[in-house]
Amino acid sequence: MKKKIKGKGILILIVMIIMASLAGCASTDTSSDSVMTLAQTAEQAKLEEISVSKLMEEDLAVDAFEEMDMALLEEALEKVDTELNLASWKDEGEILGFDDKITWIQSAGTYILQGTYEGQILVDTQDEGDVILVFNEVALSNQETSPIFISNADRLVILLAEGTENSLVDTSAYEEENDSEEERVNGAIYTKSDLLFAGSGNLTITAKEKTGILAKDALLVLDGDIIIEASRNGIKVNDLFAMVDGDLSIHAGKDGIQSEAHMQIDGGHVTIDSVEDALHAEGMIVINDGFFYLQTEDDGIRADAYLEVNGGNITIPVCYEGLESLVIVINDGVIDISASDDGINVADTSVSAEKTMGPGDEIPIEGAGLVINGGQITISSDGDSIDSNGSGLIRGGILLIDGPGNGGDVGLDFDNPLLVEGGLIISVGNDGASKSFSEAASQNVLQVFFNGVQAAGSQVTVVDEDGQVLMSHTSIKTYGVLVFSSADLQQGQTVTVQVDGEVVEDAVISDTMTIVGTSLVGEGPGAGNHPGGGMNDKMAPPNGDRPEGNRFEGERPDSN
User: Fold this and answer.
1) Fewer Cβ within 10 Å of end Cβ, the chain: N or C?
2) CA atoms of 439 and 444, how far apart (whole Å)
3) What are the phi and psi torsion angles at 251 (to 5°)?
4) Among 235, 244, 324, which Cα is nearest to 543's?
């Protein structure tokens, strides 16, 4: 599907995705609260949360990228090679002579940077054309300000020459807000123009008190091996962040990658260790492919308006919450989350919502929803494994959940009933999830409340009358309930539930929702300790009640 960076194209993309995800609901009884809420989800997403007017007001494309088709970004490197003749830069480029403190680039062209320089490369051009900086074994450092400052250019291209090791070190102090009209240059690379990375070389960026790359316009990574160590954000962009290929490794005291607009990743390897969100966009995030390893004390992937996963391999072994957005659509990909709170959280993450909601608030949100059409999702959480403050629809994929072993949280928690139309669902954890399912489901759901807490490491199995194993799962925590849904679960069928080979229950699948046993919430050990959910005794994120300070020296950063 072609997706233009222009506002109109993004709107069409979102509308098509959500409407396609919700296709099939029309045939369901429209009197169902769940279906009505899902329809509201689509309507809200396309008309309110991501409206035409908002998209047209935002300058997403920013000049240099406005004609680039996001669905064809993988062709961009070849396009750049053709237009800029990067392959023959050694013959065409000018070796840049470094001045004492500031080296000025005032004309478009190709400049080769090599050797060691303590000072600043200042790009300020008035003519048309790209400025190409070829990093050819260069080591730049600055103790007073940013080593690279792009004040003005049509577009800046940083080409990492093949086989080279390059470095930028910014040890200057963070520039606090003041009444001065001077530019606050708070990134080791600070650019007011579009920035594009290409080439297969290596670049290591160290920002002792600042952000690694601070881009006031858009940032596109076509290729390269980029390592960032920053006390603030690893990368912060005001407009679009896009990545096609390459390796990006970030260690950040705030967000790993932050966009004030939107983010799209089509490939490459992304490794992030951050104090705050690993990936955060104030608009939408679309992940089409790539390998992700995200460790954070806050959210793994947070999109304030819309999050879509179409592929890739996403591992989040440490986080507060794994995926978070107002609307989440998962079409494909492998996702593995271990969270100290919710694994997937559908909520209003906007600043206004954060200010009006207090800890423990459970307010249903119109237009919020989760749609799972495919993929393989594995979640282990201490809070709700999936917490939707709205609606939910599962039409395909594999969902494996080890929910909290006790407390007030559960494996599946939906404010409006979850509609199941396909896929494989296996969820074990603390009981109390029966309220989450819609009777309008077209695929049968079995929920078994055990007479007592089952041990961590035990194997729960469901077999049919012929002895065929319909599901088998070895838990990693204690649990009191099993939720199982599969196309193999047929009405009128008798199934046997076993734990470590011993028969626990026999059940006849008599309805769309078959419930066996009685919930022990409020009776069993540890049950009901945290009524109503909330933060409980779990670790709070940096924007909550977490104590000040992080792994970096100095005080906690405030903005850039």
Assistant:
1) N
2) 9
3) -125, 110
4) 324
Strands 459-463 and 469-474, by their bridges, are: antiparallel
Alpha-carbon gap, residue 341 to 300, rounded angstroms: 12
CA dist., res. 303 & res. 257, Å (int): 12
Per-position b or e across 85-121, b if 16+ CB within 10 A of its CB: ebeebeeebeebebeeeebebeebebbbbbeebebbb
pLDDT digits (tens, 9 = 90+) for 377-420: 999 998 888 888 888 889 999 999 998 876 667 888 888 888 89
Answer positive or negative: Cα dihedral of 483, 487, 488, 491.
positive
CB 303 within 8 A of CB 285: yes
Distance linking the first and last C-alpha atoms of the chain:
34
Closest CA to 153 of 60, 63, 258: 63
Type of residue found at 553 = E
Neighbours of 509 (CB within 10 A): 18
Percent composition of the chain: helix, strand, coil (DSSP 3-state, to 5)? 15, 40, 45
99: region left, alpha or beta (phi > 0 left; psi from -120 to 50 alpha)? beta
* Structure tokens that stand for 381 in this block: 């959480």
Total-model pTM: 0.79
Token pair, residue 193, equals 């123009």
Give pLDDT tens digits for 466-508: 999 999 999 999 999 999 999 999 999 999 999 999 999 999 9
| Whole-angstrom distance, CA of residue 89 vs CA of residue 86 | 5
